[in-house]
Amino acid sequence: MWGCQLVEREQVSSYGIIKGNLTENSDLVHVDDMVEKPKVEEAPSCLAALGRYVITPEVFDILEHTKPGKGGEIQLTDALRVMAHNGNVYAYNFKGKRYDTGNKLGFLKATVEYALRRNDLGPAFKEYLSNVVKGLS
Question: Locate the Nucleotidyl transferase domain: which residues (predicted)?
């Protein structure tokens, strides 16, 4: 089971994009393949893998036989693609809020939003941010 979420078409080249079919439960996608960071025009969908997986021990056998990929490293993505080609992989279309902490702005947004939610820091941090914003005017 993989986590996935729809992204804007122009963002597909930043993610592993799932090729698959919706099941009767519209939140589940039967995964046929995944394309790692495709060009916009080559993306099979706008459904991005979120990097959250629940996988069976079978993946370790596959990894043992996986040749190094990008950067000379064995990639989990390659093993997951083999599992998808074997036909028993599903992705859950996550509908909640997701933070892309793989880029600097996304990391900052997540940090600010989580800090604001904290009971012990939120009120003081909100006041601090308010003063910062006022200073920008």
Answer: 5-114
Residue 64 and residue 16 in contact, taking contact as beta carbons nearer than 8 Å? no
Identity at 39, one-letter amino acid code:
K
Domains of the chain: 2-98 (3.90.550.10), 99-137 (no CATH)
Read off the pLDDT of residues 32-85 as tens digits, 9 standing for 90 and up: 999 988 999 999 999 999 888 899 999 999 999 999 977 788 888 889 899 999
